Amino acid sequence: MKTKVGLLYGGKSAEHKVSMQTAMAVIGALDLEKFEIHPIYISEDGQWIKGQQLTGPVSHVNELAFSNGEALSQTALAPNLFQAAENNESFDVIFPLLHGPNGEDGTVQGLLELLNLPYVGNGVLASSAGMDKVIMKNIFAQAGLPQVKYNWFIRSEWEKSKDLAYEKVENELGYPCFVKPANLGSSVGISKCTNRSQLEKAFVDAFQFDRKIIIEEGVTAREIEAGVLGNDHPECSVAGEIVPKMDFYDYKAKYEDGETALIIPAEISEAEYGALKEMAIRAYKALDCSGLVRADFFLTREGKFYINEINTMPGFTPFSMFPLLWKHTGVEYPQLIERLVNLAIERHAEKQHIKYTM
């Protein structure tokens, strides 16, 4: 029997295009001798469209943006969305390839939990906490993980007293600093600021994407990343280094112009790798993660690591950092996908032992 995989991608998010690229790559890597692929596309305006079972790879992302197919209203999602059209059997596992809000933030995960369906990746808590950079950093602080200094503001608070907000950043963090939407990934809406004028513009830009923003102290450091894989007993990949040719690793450098070097494995000492591995797994457990994360760190000239963030659904094309890290660790892309599917089924089976009645 083949494993029926419901592939969920697109999404009402600024990271819609990234999700489409990821979906195309995963479709191309899934072994059709082992898996059935059932695509479920979420359009940019939030419409859910279930397509026909795929029988092979697709050549362009536009083929996955269905204009036809079975469109489903939000009130009709649960009864028939996650069933194979041919025989109305439930999918064996859902693979959410959604980045950013309305997909990576615990919302879709909550729906799948209510339907009691196995799904790849992190649960509701880890997804929502990992999406909100402020909550994530507060949890890391509680876990004793070293971080750079940070401030955060909500839009209404900033609008009441903009100058006080700017002064707080200048007094507590100084320049340079980085301004980011609290609930967005893929480096969307991020600005580096070296003066008040840039700071004011960065606040305006970041608030376009979220009602909450975070401002982080700038440090002179290398950007080192590691992949973590597993459920209760996670494993850590080799380390990799991001070397952007631009001033910092923004959306364009990640996805459009290729102006970034990925060095795998990173040139760090055995002791430094040991420290990174310990911190990555501690962060993973602090948020109660499952399936996968990419953990991002700063490494200073003095050899000190600061955890920057974790990404609960990292970029997942064969050329993204997370799959490349595992490739250099000995796990090829198709194997990685299969392992994630198995981890999802394993976690779901374990949760069925929980008692819900007295």
Please sum up the structure shown:
With 358 residues, the protein is an alpha+beta fold.
Write the layout of secondary structure elements.
Elements (H helix, E strand, L loop, with lengths): L2 E8 L5 H14 L5 E8 L5 E3 L19 E3 L4 H4 L12 E4 L10 H8 L9 H8 L1 H10 L7 E5 H6 L1 H11 L4 E5 L9 E3 L2 H12 L4 E6 L3 E10 L4 E10 L6 H5 L4 E4 L6 H17 L4 E10 L4 E7 L9 H9 L3 H19 L7
Parallel strand pairs: 1-2, 1-5
Antiparallel strand pairs: 2-3, 3-4, 6-9, 7-8, 7-9, 10-11, 10-13, 11-12, 13-14
Description:
The chain has 358 residues and is an alpha+beta fold. The protein has 3 domains: 3-119, Rossmann fold (3-Layer(aba) Sandwich); 149-217, Dna Ligase, domain 1 (2-Layer Sandwich); 220-350, ATP-grasp fold, B domain (D-amino Acid Aminotransferase, Chain A, domain 1). The protein is built from 12 helices and 14 strands. It has helices at 16-29, 77-80, 107-114, 124-131, 133-142, 155-160, 162-172, 196-207, 251-255, 270-286, 321-329, 333-351, and strands at 3-10, 35-42, 48-50, 70-72, 93-96, 150-154, 177-181, 191-193, 212-217, 221-230, 235-244, 260-263, 291-300, 305-311. The strands form 3 sheets. Strands 4-3-2-1-5 form a 5-stranded mixed sheet. Strand 10 and strand 11 (235-244) form a beta hairpin. The longest helix has 19 residues, at 333-351. It is globular and about 65 Å long. The chain starts with a strand and ends in a 7-residue tail after the last helix. The relative contact order is 0.13. Residues 249-257 have low confidence and may be disordered.
